[in-house]
Design goal:
globular, 7 helices, seven-stranded mixed sheet
Amino acid sequence: MPTSSPLLPWLEPGESFPSTYAAWGDDSPAPGLLAAGGDLEPATLLRAYSNGIFPWYSEGQPTLWWSTSPRMTLWVDEFRLHRSLKKTIRHFRDTPGCEIRVDSSFEKVIEACSVTPRDGQNGTWILPEIRAAYLRFHHAGHAHSIETWQDGELVGGLYCVCIGHAVFGESMFARRTDASKLALAALVAIARHHKVAWIDCQQVTSHLAFMGARPIDKKAFQQCLDSAIPKPPIQWDFDRLYWNYL
């Protein structure tokens, strides 16, 4: 174990990010940590995500930027549609008043994600300034919400970032059983419809592995970015026929 932390670059607003290969390694106190400071303006977030960098910090900390490795990645063709979820989707699709909406209530989705308890987490990283930043990013056309609605009530959903064909999952919530899984399945269906190959899930977790995600190293993830980022933007909507892609 190192006796002290490596140096961490401090960014001024608008300053370029260091190379992602400069992120702290596995022998550091915070593997994947890249830099601190900067700002959360849409142009900064666009540069960050285009290079596989994302902000993540707790209340009382400065803005911290990460480029983790390995990177949990869900290849949409490898999405595991377990029998129980397939049954849930079929019931949801055929029930009046149940629908998937896209970008109709982004602000409500990110707010709900911010107050959802997480196993092993005390508090939330989706702080008020993060919510405001991603709402600006949404208005700029780069952040989107996939929403599960029942009888006019928002019962679950997720939000993500998309640049070209690179989709970065951020957070999800559920107020009813399987509501967030329905939103994730809908996101996979949207991705398959538009021939988007993968969804970045950032952190390695057993739940994501259960759904078919797997970790890839930094070099492989960079190759994914280099292929996906230059592609034209996709259309963010959801048609009931998209369920057929699953």
